[in-house]
């Protein structure tokens, strides 16, 4: 039986699009699916997507900048209020909360607060497993999977020397080929926003970059899956505005 490897990025709470896309690629238990960050925030059901991923041992989750923000804030908010936690509400934590709020935290917080304490801890445990990047080889082709990056790029710089911010916040430089023999698959920047992209809103390939965030949570956007074995692209139906639930 042929085994396939797929990548999806920037699901952003779009549970229905995620399920539709899983159906479309007919993901088998023996296949591997890398989810390259930004599962949470913006769209309606971030926690529901996380819980679905938790049921799937063949999903390998990588962190996005939104998971970084959510982790910091949820770990803080989930602690019991004590003298100590009030004292730790320093300007830096207030700033973290504000930045997260500006970046679409509402749906994540809303679903998270509806969970019982045990379910909350399961979510926090799961988020703590998310890796910063992953290197894989499929059919002899090397890939680097990373949400954004690489801030402070230098050709000889070892990957483990990049900071979380450089990997998860800095937009990829699609004009620069980072590695001659490695294809870099990233999300973070909706392909609608890549300059001179002939196919905005679809997977973008140039200079050994494969950009797969097709703006699922935005009007006119879609969720994309990239098959590392075949280079095939799969898309959810176009994003529809959903009713508020
Ligand atoms: Mn994103």
What does this molecule look like?
By secondary structure, the protein is of the alpha/beta class. It has one domain (5-235): 4-Layer Sandwich (Purple Acid Phosphatase, chain A, domain 2), CATH 3.60.21. Helix content is 31%, strand content 18%. The chain has a five-stranded mixed beta sheet, covered by helices on one side. A five-stranded mixed beta sheet has the order 4-5-6-8-7, with no helix packed on it. α3 (65-77) packs across α5. The longest helix is centred in the N-terminal third of the chain and has 13 residues, at 65-77. The mean pLDDT is 93. It binds manganese (II) ion. Manganese (II) ion binds at residues 10, 38, 64, 188. Manganese (II) ion is lined by residues 10, 38, 64, 188.
Report the biggest beta sheet as strand number plus sense, adding barrel if it closes. 5 strands, mixed
Q: What's the CATH C level?
A: Alpha Beta
What is the mean pLDDT? 93
What structural class do you assign from the helix and strand content? Answer: alpha/beta
Total domains: 1
Assign the CATH topology: Purple Acid Phosphatase, chain A, domain 2
State the total count of DSSP E strands.
Answer: 10
Bound molecules: manganese (II) ion
Quote the distance from N terminus to C terminus: 41 Å
Shape: globular
